Every structure is written in C-alpha cells, then in structure tokens.
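Exam revision sheet. Question 4 asks you to relate a sequence to its structure. Input first:
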Amino acid sequence: MKTVSIIGLGLIGGSFGLALRKNMQGVRRLGIDYRPENAQKALELGIVDALVDETEALRQSDLIILATPVDTLTTLLPHYLDGIQGHQTIIDAGSTKAAVLDAVKNHPNRRRFVATHPMAGTEYSGPEAAREDLFVGKCCVLCDLPNSDTDAVEATRLLYQALGMHFSELPGASHDLHVAYVSHISHIASFALALTVLAKEKEEDKIFELASGGFSSTVRLAKSNPETWVPIFRQNRDNVLDVLDEYINTVSRFRSLLIEQDFNTFHQLIEQANDIRRILDQDSRI
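Answer key, structure tokens:
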C-alpha cells in the first residue's frame, strides 16, 4: 500500500491521516474535503501530504477511505466505486451500515468495497480535533465480509492493525442494531441530560462550579456535532426508537419509585445496573 486517499478530513478522517503518518511511514496521504477551510487546515496540520481532486484520488490511490457523514455515503460510495480500477480498495468509516450496503449491493465493483466502523471518536469535530492515537486499542467492526474480495479485506485488516485496532465481524443489519444499544442511545441520553440541566438551571456559573466528574462524564457526548449525529439517527431510526422506548420505560420506573418512596427497589435496580461493571471490566481494552 503506497498511497491512501482520505475523503473527509474532520475528526475521523483527520485521525486516519495522523495515525498513518505515525504508524505507516512511507505511505503517501492524499486528502479531499468538500469544505475548503477544512482541507486547508488539514494540510497545515500535516494530516495529509497533499490535497487533490476526485480524479487524482481515484488515479493515484491504492486505498480510499470515506470518512464523511453517513448521509453522504449512499451517494459518494457508488460514485467512487464507479471510478476505481480493479486493484483499488474503498472502505468507509460510517456509524451505520444498512443504508450504505443497500446502496451498492448491485454495483459491479461492490467487491472492492469493505464496510468498516472503527469504534473510536470524541465529542469534538473538525481537523483540529484529530488525534494520532484515536484508534489505539479500539474495536473496528467489519461488516458483510463475504461480499468483499479477499485481498481488499486483507488490505483493510492490515491498515487497522497498523493503527492498533482489534476486530469484530457482523452482518450490516446486526451492526446497526448493536450500535443503537451501546452507542447511539448514549448520545441521545447525553443530549437529553444537557437539555434538562440547561432548562432547569438558569445560573450558568452554577453549572460550571458544581459540575462534578459524574455530570461532566455523563454529559460529555452532548458536545457532539449535530451534523454528524442527526444523519446517524435518521439512518438508524427504527433501532434507536426500540432502545429509546426501553430507556424511557426504565427512567419512568425510577420516577415512580421516587414518588412511592420505594427505596428498597431503587437499591435493587442500582445493584442490577452495577452488573455492567462485570461486562466492561472483563476486557481491559474497553
């Protein structure tokens, strides 16, 4: 792999560029961002070696990474698959998979695409937020691998292994279901908590002064970019609604217990919730 093009130079795309610079020295990094200010900033920060247009990216690249918001992928992926040569590989980094997989299921170059989701990120966005260590120790989900060429999958694995990631394999539909449960609901809960506190606490200085580690960590995701997350919720609407209904039911149960002053049951529910520690602590990578 000599040349990689990164399409979208924000947090994820930018972190690809910095991680490639650190871990795959000698690989030339080309970049495209459809916001000129992002493209220029990425060049200044050393995220890419050069800015190119789509024609040059397609002509020069061994591997193309699509790191744009998920609602753009259903258009961009078929467009780039139209232009690749036989040896080239395209991967995406989207947080939802069903829509993009459906968009290319009958494409003649479908087998040159590997659907991936590097489960890494922060609440910040833009090239300035990029980190060279963003992917280290995190999980990359590979989806629908039987529909991709073996050499394309191998190139994809080599890339993510070099960036320090380990792997999980899922069908696209299963991926969207599970990320709704463990990722997408977390963001909605954080947005809701932030809105609740902003609505009730009118003295902003008190939020700043009294916000403990618990509040700060719980509401951290509320800083996330709506341009990233609204398309995710749109594409994964049904799965998010399913888990959101369960979340609302659970919050309502806590509310009822407070009204009834049933603190014994409250204690039992907290003990049940503590079981998440057993799951998360079994693997130091999480």
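Marking note for examiners. The first strand starts at residue 3 and ends at 7.
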